[in-house]
Structure formats: structure tokens, C-alpha cells
Amino acid sequence: MPNRTAFELRLTMHHIYLSPHLDDAVYSCGGRMFRQRREDEPVTVVNFLSGTPPEGELSAFARQYHEMWGNPSNAVALRRQEDIEALSRWGIQAIYWDSSDAIYRQIHGTPLYPNISSLFGTPHPEDERELLTCWNETWARLRFSPEQVHMYAPLGAGNHVDHVLVRKFAQQLKRQGWRVWFYEDFPHAYDSRTLQEALDGFGNVRWKSHTELIDAEEKVKAMWIYASQISMMFSDREDLRKRVKDFSAERAVDIHWGERLRKILAGSGGRRERIWRRLFGYLAHAERYWSYE
User: Fold this and answer.
1) Which InterPro entries does its entry note (predicted)?
2) What is the pTM of this model?
């Protein structure tokens, strides 16, 4: 895929994906990103929480995460390298901001999010104020304009504090006139109730869905590159492939007759669908995005 100069990128409608962590953009939006690059459209991923941890000893909670990632000597450097490899596969530009992951953030030496319940709870007010102020200043320095950009931000399905904070930042930009679609955070949005809770969390808005067919195999190949993360969320690579294909086939029901017929005749999940898949396989895959006015 051709590379474009920074000057050329500034002159073209730009697709910008707001990624809380070093995998979220590909996990949630990899199909659309691949399609856009195949059509030679400029794509950039802004990684919000890709900075190194503060100096000092990691919290017990952060150490647990490092263990699940295989205890790398430099976890953030490893995850950045995975992201660079995955995005460069499609010729996507990446921007890395200096804010650190929630598992590392502290106030006066005390972890802000010391356990799972706090990580998937309400963002700490002081943390929210500091990060949103910092991100607004950093965003302004990118020198994009609303006329140039189509932006994609997390819905916050699953209520991870980092996803919620990036969503709040995107909502601020939307109020300022930026064009924003909200993506279904994968794998959190795999649970339909979790997804609905995220949509309901925006309050009284009228949602419009946007569904597009994707190349699921190409997306899976890119997801595999994030090797440090696979064991955290999937039992193995085959489990990753199946969950991506199940999830994206369910989205394709909106726009593809074959998957719509499958849902009518075999449903979603259960024995009848398993038999259907053995007989007919997957007929289409899609990603779905949401917007409101």
C-alpha cells in the first residue's frame, strides 16, 4: 500500500481511530481500517495510553498484568512494537501519546485503579480532569480540522475506565463539530447486554447504525500480532478466530441475506447454529459503528 507524505495527508479526508490501548483499534475496527487502506484512503491511529509507567515499583495489580503478558522486561515497549508491526502491515500511520495505562496511574504514589472493580468502574475525578486537559492540549497540536477528519472512538462497552475516558474526550470533540462514529469495543461488546448498556449510557440520543462488510481473515491475522494480549482474552488463537467470526457474522445480519437467513433459521448460538456452521460455514462478516446527532 502506498505511503503518503505528511503534506498529502493534510490535504485529504483523514480517518482517525482513537485507541485507548495498544490493540483496541485493530481489535475493534481492523476490518474497516484494512478496507480503507486497500482503497488508498489515509488512516491514522492515535494511541492515547501508550506512555511508559511512572518510575518506581509497580503496584501488585500492574504486576499481575505483566505476568499475564509473559513478564517482558519492558511491557510498554513490547506492546508498542506489536502495534507498529500490526499497523505497518496495512500502511497505517500511528501516533503514540505519553499518558500511561490505568494500571500504572497513581496520585501521590497511590494507585488510582488497584484492582479489577476499580478498573471497570468510574474514572477517578482528578484523573479524568488531568487526562482530558492534557489530551485537549495534545490534540490541538496535531493541527487537524473537523472538515478533514472522520473520527472513530470507543463506545466504552465493558466500562473500562480508559475506554470511558477516551469516549468522553471524543464526545467533547463531537460537541465542537468533529464528525465522530463510535465503535463496538471488542471483545467487550461480544456480550449484547454490555453493548446495550454502553449505548444507553449516552443518555437520550437517537442512534444510527452503520454496518460494512469486512475481510475477517485479514483482521484476525493482524490481531494475532498482539501476541502478549491473546492469552488474556482468548483461550488460544483458534478461540480468537472463532469469536471474531461469530461476532462479525452477527453484525452482517443487518446487510447480508445469507447471515440474515441463518439467524432466522438457526438463531445465534446453541446447537442449531453449530450445525448450520458445520454445513454452510460463514457467509459474511461485518463491523458496525454508531453515530448520533
Assistant:
1) GlcNAc_PI_deacetylase-related, LmbE-like_dom_sf
2) 0.93
